[in-house]
Amino acid sequence: MRITLEPGGLDLETAPGETILDAARRQGFDAPNSCRNGNCHVCEAVLLHGRVKLPDSREAGPGEEIFTCVAEPLEDCALHWEGILAPGQLPVRKLACQVVECSPIGGDVWRVRLRTPAGKPLRYHPGQYLLLERDGAEPAAFSIASAPSEERMLELHILTRDPVTQAVIDYLQQHKVARIQAPFGEACLSELPDQPLVLIAAGTGLAQMQSIVEQCLQQGFAHAIHLYWGVRHSDDLYEAPHWQRWQQAPNLYLHRVISDQPDWPERQGMLHQAVCEDIADLADYRFIVSGSPAMVYGTLDALVASGMPEDHMLADAFAYAPRQP
């Protein structure tokens, strides 16, 4: 039977005679449970549609509360089940962090380092982002540049060329405490792939890639990693904290590309052009892209046209700015 789980829109399949909780656990879901006999109520959910069999051959229908540890579906069902997480998904947490560093690193970019509370390490996948909260303002999203192995330390790269991001820096310098929610984002590595990687970053999209590169190097990723970092002008390049050390990694290939500066002595052009010049068979690689929606979709179209399977690319823009049909 197919079970749809709301509010996350997750799906799982149950075998004949299998309870919903057992099916969820078998398929790698992180599901709230304790006693597994319907007494503790931890696994409670609301049946939205469909029918399930309960102990003593009783049945439950839409609108009824059920305990997933003893409920066996009789047909395809939908549940409202709070607290269940898909395989690899991590719980979103709210934390108040100490501002350890807030300093300019060139190109109007500031490096911000936050320390999470002792005893409360934040679990996140490399490549995910956080929301930074301020009084009287909408939360602002920033990629986490640090690797999960850095435990209590979180790093952000914030470009201050608009009033909103400049206000964020001013707020952090004044208050010395940052309230965050994390983690978010699906353009990340919940586990290392068994394929080489191409990481494509525009501007401070490098922060997202820094987290991924650091995690790969620390875990001994054996495949090639091509990192393409693009800006419009060389003045937009900022001090990437680990760039010099990365140059010593034997399987990491670094490419800086300038798009709008004819006198730039190194590589010029668009990021997707550089990728296509360097890599003959794009189907052999996995891609993660960070940039504006226009940049992401332009890169997607160009690489697909050059042979990349569309499902080989991850980008957060696919979720927050979906392309209209």
General description of the model:
The protein is α/β, with parallel strands linked by helices. The chain has three domains: 79 residues, Beta-grasp domain (Ubiquitin-like (UB roll), Roll); 92 residues, Elongation Factor Tu (Ef-tu), domain 3, CATH 2.40.30; 124 residues, Rossmann fold. The protein is 19% helix and 31% strand. It contains seven helices and 19 strands. The strands form four sheets. The protein has a six-stranded antiparallel β-sheet with strand order 12-11-14-9-10-13. Strands 2-1-8-3-6 form a five-stranded mixed β-sheet, with helices on one face. A five-stranded parallel β-sheet has the order 17-16-15-18-19, sandwiched between helices. Strand 18, helix 6 and strand 19 form a beta-alpha-beta unit.
Break the fold down into its secondary structure elements and pairings.
Blueprint (H helix, E strand, L loop, with lengths): L1 E5 L3 E4 L6 H7 L17 E6 L2 E2 L5 E2 L4 E3 L4 E2 L3 E4 L12 E12 L4 E7 L13 E6 L2 E7 L9 E7 L3 H13 L1 E8 L12 E6 L3 H13 L6 E7 L11 H4 L5 E7 L12 H8 L7 E5 L2 H13 L7 E2 L2 H4 L5
Parallel strand pairs: 1-8, 15-16, 15-18, 16-17, 18-19
Antiparallel strand pairs: 1-2, 3-6, 3-8, 4-5, 4-7, 9-10, 9-14, 10-13, 11-12, 11-14
Protein name: CDP-4-dehydro-6-deoxyglucose reductase
Family: Belongs to the Fre/LuxG FAD/NAD(P) flavoprotein oxidoreductase family.
Pfam families: Fer2 (PF00111), NAD_binding_1 (PF00175)
